[in-house]
Write a structure and sequence with these properties.
125 residues, alpha/beta, Rossmann fold, 11% strand, globular
Length: 125
Amino acid sequence: MLVLDSDILIELLRKGSHRGDEALETLKALDDDIVTTAINVHEVMYGLEKHGKHAPDLMRIRALPYTRKEAALSANLELHAERIGTPSGRTDAMIAAIAMNNNAKLYTFNKRHFQAFTEQGLKLL
């Protein structure tokens, strides 16, 4: 299973995006179930609505939920990142926890945001 981060979704939705084309080619070459998270849907929908845009295709992709299990793991991930001196964004810890609890890889252009979580088992593409 492959979880798409918000930056990947945004580039896929953006017309004429070279990064979006690159991401699409990467996805075509994989034989994985492609999903995102409820957190990523929120981030992308917020940005779209804020700028008066709509992307009905975004709602077609399956979104993994954020549950108590992910809440517990994301809190630990965020604390670990702080302790090692690489504090992360709260939503990044939440997204990482969802991917980890679903034994999925995370596809992101912002690997730096998630690097601290790889020590805890997050797999990045």
